[in-house]
Structures are given as structure tokens and as C-alpha cells.
Amino acid sequence: MIKDITIGQYFSAKSVIHRLDARIKIILTIAFIVNIFLIKNFWGLGVIVATLIATTLLSKVPFKMILKSIKPIVFIVIFTAVLNLFYMQDGRNLLPESWFISITDKGLIFAFFLAVRIITLVIASSLLTYTTTPTELTFAIEKLLSPLKLIKVPVNTFATMMTLALRFIPTLIEETDKIMSAQKARGADLETGGIIDRIKAMVPILIPLFVSSFRRANDLAFAMECRCYTDGEGRTRMKQNKISFKDIAALVIIVLITTGIVLLNTFFTHVI
Amino acid sequence: MPVLQAVNVSHRYTQASPTQFSAIENVNIEIENGELVGIIGHTGSGKSTLVQHFNGLLKPTEGKILLDGKDIWESKKTVHQSRFKVGLCFQYPEYQLFEETVYKDIAFGPKNMKLSEEEIDKAVRKAAEYVGISASMFQKSPFDLSGGEKRRVAIAGVMAMEPQVLILDEPTAGLDPKGRDRILDMIKAYQKDTKKTVIFVSHSMEDVAKLATKVLVMNKSRVAMYDTVDNVYSRAEELTEMGLNVPQVTKIFMSLKKQGVDVSQNIYTVEQGKAELLRLLGGSKK
After folding, report:
1. What is the mean pLDDT of residues B238-262?
2. Contact at CB, A184 and B89, closer than 8 angstroms
3. Residue B158 at interface with chain A, using a CB cutoff of 8 Å
4. Rounded to whole angstroms, how far apart are CA atoms B39 and B25?
């Protein structure tokens, strides 16, 4: 059960999206998310959804994987949509006057936009992690944050920390599994009882896990020092990432989409 | 009636990889009450997977595990009960310690059994005695102990449940020779005193020879042999083929025999070898 958790889910495939530079992909994702919130009418919404579908098809990530990424947020989407449906009271009431609740046409559109926005946002960001390996991602974040070095933020160190954290997720999952089995063998009951009982039952698992994490971190720090690791300053990389033609093309496309959406906003009536 | 019985047990892992991987296949064994069984086998031969079936941590994909003649997967209750009846101590058990004091940690198992205060106290003291943890250490934090002590406290935690069958998965892994001998002596003393069944997994043919009454050899997910120490160790060639080695002393005595010296072949420990040599030398003097 615990092995089902897939964090930093990377889906290995050979596609244009996979081959894009990670730095560009992060910029594209951020720009796309900004666009999601720029849209003011159904034209813009159409452009957003179409772009997303096109990107998904290009990335060769199966539809099933995309659905899997939305699954955890279904509840949040429904909850916020319903809340907004009743909260937004401007516009024409669609329900009979005698009812004590009212739903307006504006509220309906608002709730719909909100739901689509959350879903597209999650799909866009999970496409980023599906098509980019964790190492590429940390490299990209390091590069993108490098201007912060000017104000003495240790960007390299943060990048190393992130790489290590990602590296140890599977190890920790395995460790958790082992400790859970060991405590179950001593009769620990993890599956029954109320919420309080279950939280209490986690103590025998969390404490050994903490202890071993610290031990591991200590060992790792020691091993890294033995191999002369100083902080990340001035380190070179085995894989040199270069911006290529398709990266520039992707940037041009996102600029065009953004301009398009701004134009659609100015020339067509706003619905929200 | 055997206390533990595996009937046609197979277990396949499917989650880890797209190709099906059998961890154990078609295991049929009977373990009698009061036996001290040593399980040996190459890394990945399925030893650990097999023992995790005995207390219901893993559910067999096929077949049944019978405890006292009853299927342990009969109901949720029987599975839970089997955890107490069959005490399983994992590899490197010191990493499972979590309580504030040694005493509380040993008491974790009995507490889960919902025993009364006095019963728990009695069980804890008895288990601590078996592993050589004195009462003066009870109030210490388990994290302040040495590696060997931690290991013994963890084993006591399983012994304190007073299981019918005690299973130890590589109890001596990573210990120095002194610590290893201590654990082995402890297992032997425990078995002698309680007359309960003990199963232990080991890499060392010497350790198994020293302790076990019966040996179970696992090879490539299957039970290759399950017999007395003498019978198993006399099949040295087969064992070597499986990547296992008979103890060095045994090898020496086997080649002596081949060269026509009249010695017993059933020599597995240095002590036995010494006695046999003395007998031989004493005999030739006459």
C-alpha cells in the first residue's frame, strides 16, 4: 500500500516535451498558470484548454496518468465550486423565487471557471513533473534562482538539499514499510480503531523512522565530506544543458498565447 | 501434530516489477513442537519471505499456513492472534526500538496482547533475563545502549510475548564474533528452558550447525532440503552447487576421510573436530 505513493512522478517517454530544457519548461509552466488566471471569457478558456490538450498529446503521457494526478483534488474542486455557486449572488436567479436558496447565472459561470482553472493548473504542473526528471528539475531551479546569489542566498546548497531529499524518498518509503512490518509483528494494530487510536499507533513507526533518518543524514554528510564535498559553488556538471531551437520556439508560442489571451480579453466581453 | 505447517505455499510479488517474481514457490514443510530449525540459503532465496508468512505478515498467493492445525488466514482475528503465537524478530531489530525506556519497549508486545500489569511485568522480566539485560538497565533509554545491547533488547521485546514459536531473522547479522556467540548461546538457552519451537534464519553454516536440530535449505524460492543437520551437511556437493558452503572443519574431515583416515564425517564445529582428533590420536597410541 505504501509503495503506491508516487512522489516526483516521472513518466519516461521520448517526446518533444521531454526533450525541452527543464528551465524553459518551468518558465512555460509559470507563464501558462498566469494565463489561466488572465482569462476573462470563454474564448480564452478555449485557448487554455486547447493548449493543454495539445501539450498533453505531444508529451505522450497516457491519459490515465493525467487522471491520476487530478484524483486527489477532486474533492477540493467540487467543494470550492459548490461554495462559489451559492456565494456569488450577482446576476439573474435561475431557481424559482420561492426557494430559500438561489443560484444565479453569474454564479454558475464563476463556479465553472474556478473548477476548470484548478484542474488545468494541476494538470499543467503535473505535466512538468511527468516529463522532467527530478535531477533536471533541481538543476533548473538552481539556475533560475541563481540571480538570488547576488543577495547571498546559497542557491547551490538549496539545490543539493533538494536533490538529496528527492533521492531519499524511495529509501524512506522502504524503511517505513520495514518498520511497519516489525511493529505489526509485535502486535501493533494499525488498521482498526478511531482516529485518536490510529494517530497513537503511528508513534512506534515515526520514532524509529526519525531516528534512522537522522542516522542516515549523518552518515551521508560524513560520506560526502570524505569525498571532498564543499558547498555547490563552482561545481561543474556531467550533463551540460543547452538551450536549443525548440526551446526558443516554445517560448515564442507561450508569448503568442499570452498576447492572444490579452487580445481576446480586450475585444470580447468579460463574463467574469 | 506439527505446530507450524506450510501447505503448498507460494508467494508472488507483482507490484515491484511488471514481470511476476516468485519469492517462494510450492513450499511444503512441517515444523514439530520444540524443534530448533535453522533456515539457510543464498541472498534472495526466499528465506525472509517464508518466515514472514509464518505470522501472517504476508498472505500466501497460494496455499495455506497452518498454526496448530488451523489456517491462520481464517479470519481477521486469527491473523492478529498468530502475530502473538508466532513471534517474529526482524533483521536488524534494533531499528524498531522507540519507547522512552528499555522496560517500556520490551513491554510493547505484551501490552498489545492486553495482558494485565502483573503479567506484563513478569513477561518483561523473564524475557530480559533470557537476553541478559539486567533490571538496572530497565529505566535507561534504548537509544543510549550499545549496538549489541539494543539488539538483545529488541529480541527480548519479541520473547516477552511468550510466543509458541520464536522466529529470528538473521539475529547475528552485523555483530562482532563475541556478540554473535552471545546471541547464539542465548537462543540455545531460551530453547532449552522454554522447550518452545525456535526458527532462525542465518547465512552462516557454522552457526546453524552449532544450534539447530533441523536444517531447512532454501534455494531459488524452493525448499531444497529439510532434514537433520547430519543428513543435510553430508550432501556437501549439492550445497556447494547452491552457493552455500559447509563449514571449513567439515571440509577438512571429509578430505581426511577420502584419504583413508578413519574419522567421522559428521564434524561441523571446531569443538567436535577437536574431540574427534583426540579420539583418533588417543586410539592410535594404544
Report:
1. 85
2. no
3. yes
4. 16
Indicate yes or no: CB of B113 within 8 angstroms of CB of A204.
no
pLDDT at B117 over 60: yes
DSSP H/E element including B7: strand B4-13
Structural domains of chain B in order of their starting residue, each with its CATH number: 4-246 (3.40.50.300), 247-286 (no CATH)
N- to C-terminal Cα distance for chain A? 43
Half-sphere exposure of B110 (CA within 13 A, CB side): 24
pLDDT of residue B285: 47
Looking at residues B194-202, what average pLDDT do you find?
A: 93
CB contact under 8 A, B96 and A183: yes
> Cα dihedral sign for A37, A39, A40, A41?
negative
* Dihedral over Cα of A132, A136, A142, A143: its sign: negative
> Are B96 and A182 inside 8 Å of each other by CB?
yes
Q: Is the pLDDT of residue B86 over 90?
A: yes
Q: For the range A97-102, what are the long-range contacts, defined as Cβ-Cβ under 8 Å and sequence gap of 24 or more?
A: none
**B37-54 pLDDT tens trace:** 999 988 888 888 999 999
Is residue B21 within 8 angstroms of chain A, CB to CB? no
* H and E: helices and strands count for chain A: 10, 0
Neighbours of A1 (CB within 10 A): 7
Decide which of B185 and A99 is more confident.
Answer: B185
Confidence of residue B19 (pLDDT cuts 50, 70, 90): low
Inspect the interface and report whether the beta carbons of A186 and B15 lie closer than 8 Å: no
Average pLDDT value for chain B:
88
Q: Would you list which residues of chain A are within 8 Å, Cβ to Cβ, of chain B? A: 3, 178-179, 181-189, 203-204, 207-208, 211-212
pLDDT in tens, A48-62: 999 999 999 999 988
The full DSSP string for B206-270 is: HHHHHH-SEEEEEETTEEEEEEEHHHHHT-HHHHHHTT----HHHHHHHHHHHTT----S---SH
Residue A188's H or E segment, with its range, is none
Q: Is the pLDDT score of A1 beyond 60? A: no
CB-CB under 8 Å, A184 with B57: yes
User: How near does any CA of chain A get to the CA of B142, in Å?
Assistant: 11
pLDDT above 80: residue A98? no
Q: Does B239 touch chain A (CB under 8 A)?
A: no
Alpha helices in A103-154 (DSSP H): 105-131, 134-145
B87 at interface of A, judged by CB pairs closer than 8 A: yes
Contact A185 B90 (CB under 8 A): yes
